[in-house]
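Lab meeting minutes (informal)
Scribe: AK
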Amino acid sequence: MSIESIETINHIDFDKRLDLNNARLRQELVDMQNRVQQLEMLITRKEIFSQRLDQILTELESEENEIASLTKSVHSTLIPSRKRSRNAQSKQ
């Protein structure tokens, strides 16, 4: 059986490795914080866009209702006038 040897390092090398690792982790943290900030900005833009779409849909529904109402009123005014014109034609 072979016995694995454990690498031993002195305090100076340990501190250097530790500092390098800490620097790497700090950079990763900064990168992640930047990514989080970008994602938060995208979410905010998405929410604004969604609110704008909701507003547009509400405006479209309102305009559709107004068109439907106007169409009904036009039809209701045309029907009696058609009847009058038919009656006038039949009397002639």
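Next up, CB showed the second protein from the same session:
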Amino acid sequence: MAAEDIKRHFVQFLGEDVGVSFDNPDDPRDVILYRPDRLSDEFASLAFGALQGSRPALAARIDRLLVSFEEPWGRTQRGIDIRPISLASYSIDIFPAGLPASAA
């Protein structure tokens, strides 16, 4: 059931010309999106983000999202980064370079 729901979501979001397959339809951890011409990474990421927003439990089942397409030398498959980003791991320097620390 999860595989069919995932497939339905991606086809509705990305269009009827996108093929959706799985490493294991009974436990869909790897989702492969196929289109003969290249599907943009951003569009695939947006589709995954929409799934996270509408069906978070279903999106949480997916470990890898792959985009597959044809190139002159054959079929290519690329991974899309779907890991959540934690802003706590980033630091932002709000002072311009060269400003003395005492000015803070």
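CB comment: Confidence is low (pLDDT under 50) at residues 85-92.
No objections, moving on.
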